[in-house]
# Entry
Amino acid sequence: MKRVISLQGGMAAGKTTLAKRLERAIRDAWVIYEDPSALVQKRKELALDLENEKDFIVNQRMFIEHEVERFRRLPDAKIIYDRGPEDIECYTLHYPLSIGKEWDIEGQLKAELNELRSCRSDAILYLDAQASTLRARKERDSTRSRGSFAQAMGMLSYEKEWFSKLPTTTLLPVDALDAEMVEAKVLQFIADLWKD
# Structure
């Protein structure tokens, strides 16, 4: 049986750092990292403009199909996602709003969104950080370019509101926590969730 937790939160909230720490700490869990590089490359090859409605639909259809396939290939095991299927759904629904567009996303991607919604995680842990914290963490981290940081900041309020309404989401405020403190809290959260 799959038991799936996804780590969500704004860019630079600490999701990947946490996922790496959990991978070392929980030996019987599969940690699945976000890696959209192949899809981003395909978007570039197709010269898709995300501010154009038709191009956005093509792009999101591609991302959704990839995410559904990725979820279906998961083993029957304990899974920890560094961003899960819900992240694609949230972006699909809210990116247009974040750039002032009111496109009929639900209508144009109805079948794809229904399929994606069948892949939801059992639990979502949202690492909740203020925009100022995210900016400061980005500035301190020279190991990653975070080229889409401005776009992610534009999505932040939509993202937090949407995730907080999902019944499986737990918000974890991380502004005042270092990586070790976050790990300790999340290990306890997971132990309580996965106790047999």
Remarks:
- The mean pLDDT is 94.
- The chain is about 55% helix and 15% strand.
